[in-house]
Every structure is written in structure tokens, then in C-alpha cells.
């Protein structure tokens, strides 16, 4: 239908970019981009008219683009263009161009493929840079000199790494070297756009690939120095600690294999972020990272802010998991007491299963016996959790005796004593002194109040 409209207007038009790439890769693709040699807006207007009622047309005259939406269909129209950029800004100087000019200015050969929509040449593939071959060989390569392509739009360095991760492709060595050379240019890119690429890396099947490529290219140092700081091993008196970056990569992939929850994946990436700041050599003990979970959790708000990740419940969730990630291991190192399990259930609430997924993923030792021992102990913890949860319903703990009732029974005004009595009840339940029930809790409050002379 687009082709017919274009023929009627004597305009050449092509479907181009991601849609063609995904068609050949048999991947689902959402947006269709159509490039028109001439006015994209004119063709969009004609196409929108032919779709009839319920069609939404948005025209962006200053960009020479237009978007047509009807139901789930979304087509972007743009005039073919030649583009070049100023070195210090991302504002391009745009001129009308041929299809080839338009393909030249695109990021990768696999994203520069075009299929003709005009009737006479319908379905003809225009592939001037060997994009189809690169798709088969699973290669990311720029159509032009990579220094030009990346310098024109430095976000493309992130995109190269993101596509390599998402599609499990390799970046051509010359292309990769250009990313390293141009890495400083990433600083001119808006953080939100970088964050979008990072999220796409995190949603991939094996996100560690992306982070490792970011590291090898030198981009990681610039965009996420705290993660870079996890790299390396110090040795003293023949004792080295593990490389926290490599360990983190394994934990991240382990979690990704178990869960699509992108925030659980972030928690895996960040679980040991506090280690470099807490690292100490202690005579007789060796390397220690005391309170790294707590310090790591405290680092997260500023990291999220700088990376432009959301400062909402997702941050709270990641912070909670990072803070609690050592608890199950401490639990199994001592004897697994009911009261410690109840306290963990109380603090983790509904995120307890995610926490246990993270902790299981955190076992990356190569010593099989050790792995088995930890896994068995975790199974024991899980079993205890189920038993205690059934009995005591700690996960979404609601105090069985409310402040209002306490005030009424003891004729108290709102005061700190009410809070103290409530918290004594909570502790007694978590410690297993009383069951999580109203009457038992009230009797307990009365007992304590009597001891306090009330
Ligand atoms: N493009 C580009 N340089 C960019 C962004 C986009 O050359 N920095 C071109 C590519 O040809 C790309 C097309 O514009 O295929 C559409 O871009 P976009 O929708 O951002 O990406 P897709 O390739 O469709 O992939 P995805 O939807 O996974 O982001």
C-alpha cells in the first residue's frame, strides 16, 4: 500500500534499517522506517489518508519526518538525507540526498539494508556494504570508516556493544579499535540514551558480554568507574582475593539464566560494588571486605542518579537486595536458627525469593564440594522459611496489636512508649517467644507493661 501511494506520487521509497535486519534474523520488530527519495512527509500524508478513519499522523517539519499510527501499526517516514556533524555538537547539518547517501550515514552494515517498496522493483534488496553477509557471519561493522561513523554519533559505540550482546554478534576488530580510540567522545552523549543502551544490554540473554566489551573498549572507565574498580587481584603473603569484576560477571549471567527481572539483574551487577571501598588486609585473616553489602547499598542512590536510572521503587528494591545479600550466607555459616530466619523473612518481605535467587547465583566457587555444601545449606534455609512462613506469616508482617489498642488499654496518649511496646511485640514474635497472634501479643504487652509499672 505504501508502494502504491509512492508510485502515484512518483516517489522512490524503501523500508530500511532495523526492520529489515530483524526480518532477516526472524526477530520481532516494532517500528517500520521508510526512507523516501524526496519528501517523506508527502508520502506519509498520502499513506495516512489511504488508511482512513482512526489513523494518526504526526508531522515534524523541522526534521523532515512524519509518523503514521493506526492500531498496532507504526510507520516512520523520512526523506533520504546526507548528514554531517559538527565535532563539538550532535546537531547535524542535514541535506537532501540519494538512497545511497542515506545508507552511508547509518551506523552498521546490518542496519543499512533497504528493500524497495515501489511496484516495479518491489522486494529488491539494496545492500551496498555487504550487510546480508555480515548478518550471516554475525559481524558488527560500520559502513564507512569507523572513526567517522562513531565521531558523527558517539552513541553508536554503545549501540555496537549493545547489538553484539543482544544478537550475540562479534564486533569487527577495526570497528572495535575505533570504539577504543573514540571512547572519550561518549561524554557528549545524554546519560538517558546511554542508560537505554545499558538496559538493553541487561535484558539480553548473557549481559556479561556487554559489560566485558564496555570494559575492554575503555568505555566502562568513563561511564561506570565504580564497576571498573572491581577489576584486578591484590596478593599479599601469597594470598590473593578473587577478581570481583569477573565474579560479578558470573553472578550476573547466573541470575540472567534464572530470571528476566531486569532489576534483579542490576542487583547481581551491583551486589559487590562496595568491595573496593571496604577491602582490607588483616594479619592472620587475609583479605576482608567487612560491611561491603552495607557500603554498597549506600553507594546506590548516587550511582542510579548519575546513570539516570530511576530513583523510585526499583532503586529501593536493588538497594535492599544488595544490603541483604550476605545474610543467607551468614545464616548458614552459623546454625540456622528459627529466629534468624524469621528476621530475614521480615526484612526481605516479598523479595525473599529474589534474594535467594541472587544468593544461589553468588556461589561461583570452582570447588564442587564447597558449592554443594552451600547449595544444601540454602535448601535447608528455604525449607525453614516455608515452615516458618506457614506458621507465623512474617513476610508481610502486620503487628497483631496496633498502637491504638495499646493506647486504649493503658490509657496512654501517643508517645514513644507505645512505639517501644509495639517493637517489643515484633521482637518477641521474630524471636519465637510468642506466636504471631492477637491474644498472645496483647497478653505479652500487658506483661511488659506491668514490668514497667504501668
Ligand atoms: N541509526 C543510526 N545511528 C543511530 C541510531 C539509529 O544510524 N545512532 C539508524 C540505523 O540504521 C537503525 C535505524 O536508524 O537501524 C533505526 O534506529 P533505532 O530505531 O534506534 O534502532 P533499530 O536499529 O531499529 O534497533 P532497536 O529497535 O533495537 O533499537
Gist?
With 454 residues, the chain is α+β, with helices and mostly antiparallel strands. It is built from 24 helices and 15 strands.
Describe this structure in words.
It is built from 24 helices and 15 strands. It has 454 residues and is an alpha+beta fold. Helix 13 packs antiparallel against helix 14 (262-270). Helix content is 54%, strand content 13%. A hairpin with a 2-residue loop joins strand 12 (235-236) and strand 13. The termini are far apart. The protein folds into four domains: 1-137, Beta Polymerase, domain 2; 138-223, Hydrophobic Seed Protein; 259-392, no CATH class; 403-451, no CATH class. The strands form five sheets. The chain has a seven-stranded mixed beta sheet. The protein has a two-stranded antiparallel ribbon with strand order 6-7. A two-stranded parallel ribbon has the order 10-11. The mean pLDDT is 92. The site of cytidine-5'-triphosphate has 12 residues, from helix 7. The site of cytidine-5'-triphosphate (CTP) has 12 residues, from helix 7.
